[in-house]
């Protein structure tokens, strides 16, 4: 089975981007930790980051043909704006966990609303890079329970 990890805009800058909010961990570090965890559980992991809304939508659409069974997604700023990315996730009907490095509820008020949370299996926010490994752990448990 394949788990897809999607990262939205500006997450390619992790490590140097507002480290007081997002930490010093890079996207490569996050991917390496998740890769170890996935391999230990015999699951294939694919990661994709884009600064372009349409590319993220295309990746979600191709996930269905590819047999992706679970998605872990940090939509970044698209969390608060993208009906189109939300619609893509509904269209493919692949369960997903929404992850945010920061606690979006303790920041500017415009970050408190997410177009994804009400259709997510679960939401993790405020735990930094650890949020991704916790999300993967939860995804692995759910996949084992259903297959
Ligand atoms: C973020 C929170 C968003 O509000 C912000 O636009 C991001 C990152 C997070 O991981 O904390 O780019 O999704």
From TrEMBL:
GO biological process terms, semicolon-separated: amino acid biosynthetic process; aromatic amino acid family biosynthetic process; chorismate biosynthetic process; quinate catabolic process
Q: Which residues bind substrate?
A: 74, 80, 87, 101-102, 111
Positions of the site: Transition state stabilizer? 17
- Active site: residue positions: 22, 100
Q: Which Gene3D superfamilies does the record match to this protein? A: Dehydroquinase, class II (3.40.50.9100)
What is its EC class?
lyase
PROSITE patterns cross-referenced by the UniProt entry: DEHYDROQUINASE_II
Give the domain of life.
Bacteria
User: What keywords appear on the UniProt entry?
Assistant: Amino-acid biosynthesis, Aromatic amino acid biosynthesis, Lyase
InterPro entries in the record, alphabetically?
DHquinase_II, DHquinase_II_CS, DHquinase_II_sf
Which reaction is catalysed here? 3-dehydroquinate = 3-dehydroshikimate + H2O
EC assignment: 4.2.1.10
> GO MF terms on file?
3-dehydroquinate dehydratase activity
**Pathway per the UniProt entry:** Metabolic intermediate biosynthesis; chorismate biosynthesis; chorismate from D-erythrose 4-phosphate and phosphoenolpyruvate: step 3/7
Give the family per the record: Belongs to the type-II 3-dehydroquinase family.
**What is the role of the protein in this entry?**
Catalyzes a trans-dehydration via an enolate intermediate.
The annotated subunit structure for this chain is: Homododecamer.
Entry protein name: 3-dehydroquinate dehydratase
Name the species this protein comes from: Rugosibacter aromaticivorans
From which lineage does this chain's organism come? Bacteria, Pseudomonadati, Pseudomonadota, Betaproteobacteria, Nitrosomonadales
